[in-house]
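REQUEST FORM: STRUCTURE PREDICTION
Request ID: SP-0412
Submitted by: Lab K.M.
Chain count: 1
Length (residues): 275
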Amino acid sequence: MDIAAYLRRIGYEGPRTPTPAVLAAIARHHAMAITFENVSVLVDGPPELELDALEAKLVHAGRGGYCYEQNSLLRAALDELGFQVRGLSARVRYGVPNDVMTPRSHMVLCVDLPGGQALVDAGFGGLTLTAPVMMRWDEVQKTSHENVRLVADDEDRVLQAELGGEWVDVYRFDFSRHLPPDYVQQNWHTATRPNGLFSNNLIAAVPVPGGRYALFNRTLTWRSLAGEKERRQIESEAALRSTLREVFSINVPDRELAKAWEVSGRAAPLHPGFS
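STATUS: Completed
RESULT:
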C-alpha cells in the first residue's frame, strides 16, 4: 500500500506507530476526509474492492465510497501501520423496526490494542464513527460527534448512539471473522439488490467540525452537534454538482452526475439515516 499517499489524503502527519493515540487520529482523519458516497454505484454497480482499485478511487482520484470501500481501505492502512485488525460484519438496526431482522450488510473492523479491542468504522453514512469505540459494554464513550456505547444482545453486541437525548440502535454484530470473499458477496448484494437503498438513491455524508452533512437524493441536511437540523432542496443538476464539490469535496464525471440527477428525482421518502 502507498501509505504515504493515504496519509496525505486524510491529512494526517503524526507518528506511524500502532498505538491507541495513532488509531484514534487515523479514525478521525479518515472519517472527516473521505466522504461516504455511492455515486459510482448508480452507474457501474458493485465497486471493486481490490487494494489498487481502492487506492485509485479513494486516494488518488479524491473520491469517496461506501462501507466496503471505506473500511477495506482503512484496514489496509492499519495493517500497513502494524495494527492487528479483524474484519467483522454487522446487521443494520438504525431506522429499522424492532421486529425486522436484517442481513449482514455492513463491514466493520475490530482492532487489537494493549488495553483491549476497539470497534473502528469509517463507513456508516450519517453516523460514521469519528473515534474508535473500546469493546466495553454499557459504558458511554465520547467521540468528536455523538456519544456512543456498546450493549449486549444475547451473544451479539449492539452499537448505540445518543441522538436528541435518546439512545438508538445503530447496528448489531458478533466477533465472527469475515474474509475478503465474504465482503465481495455482500458488496454485490448491497449494490444490486432490487429496491435496495444504495442502488436506487443518491447518498453522500460526511462529518465535519460542529456536525454532519447528509445528502439523500435532492435533500441536503445539516445536523449540528446539538441536534439542530437545517434542510434545503437541490433544484438543478448544476446545483447538485456544486453541492457534491463544495460540501462533500468530490468531483464526479458528467456521466455519473447525469445518472445521479436522474436517480435523485425519484420520489423516495427521506431515509432516517441521512436526514
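NOTES: The radius of gyration is 17 Å.
Reviewed by: T.R.
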